[in-house]
Amino acid sequence: VHRFSSAKMAALRVGLAGVGTVGGGIAQILSGQRSLIAQRCGRAIDLVAVADQRPIEALEAELRGHADLKHYSDAVDMANNADVDVIIETIGGYGTALKIANGALGRGVSLVTANKAMLAVHAAELTTIAESNNAKIGWEAAVGGGIPCIRALREGCAANRISYAAGILNGTCNFILTTMKETGRGFDDVLAEAQALGYAETPPDLDVDGIDTAHKLSLVAAVATGCLPNYEAVHTEGIRDISGADVALADELGFSIKLLGIASRIESVE
Length: 270
Hints:
Elements: E1 12-17, H1 21-32, H2 34-41, E2 45-51, H3 60-63, E3 70-72, H4 75-81, E4 86-89, H5 95-106, E5 110-113, H6 116-132, E6 137-138, H7 150-156, E7 164-167, H8 171-183, H9 187-196, H10 205-208, H11 211-225, H12 244-252, E8 261-264
Parallel strand pairs: 1-2, 1-4, 2-3, 4-5, 5-6
Antiparallel strand pairs: 7-8
Helix pairs in contact: 4-5, 5-6, 6-11, 8-9
Family: Belongs to the homoserine dehydrogenase family.
GO molecular function, one term: homoserine dehydrogenase activity
EC number: 1.1.1.3
């Protein structure tokens, strides 16, 4: 049985930006699985700073098991000043999240993020900042984190020339289209159910207009080809105009309607 090295390494000091559903889950895993993580990684991972607009007293359930935490009400302030090795960004979007990324990477603090929207648009500049300051960006969870697929493409397929990639990249759209097929209900009705279940945001534009799929596809294509993400070049369509009749007709013909992200390598023509 392989055993990891028992050599003692200093604990990895982590700052967490955002203690919502995702951030709170991360904090609980770091606390509840601390011994297992240390055993497998060869060093402990200590959550030492958190940033959330709520007072730390309101975060007791999420942060149980973590002592001596430095609390910041401003996540950008934490990214710029906290004594940490890594910042985990869970806020999302382009605004504050990009400031967090710039602040952390600019002073040599590595970044972990699942923010595919930010990466799809700003990967080039963030990569440059990270490389200039000997920092790293970990973003496996941005696309298919539960599979996972990014590391498989980057490392497992390092010797392969990938010419085509396709997949269902958005769970919300998949739920809506599958439910429409199974129940015969219309798009608006099923979308409302998805929102009530917490599967779709309000407004749901990023999901149902195909933007989330385009963000993820640009990242997959970048890893597969070795190029930087080019989200603006992705032709994007969503599922808003798909009716119950469309789904029923496809079913009669033996097909299912799905929102696919498709990337194909096209040889340049001289």
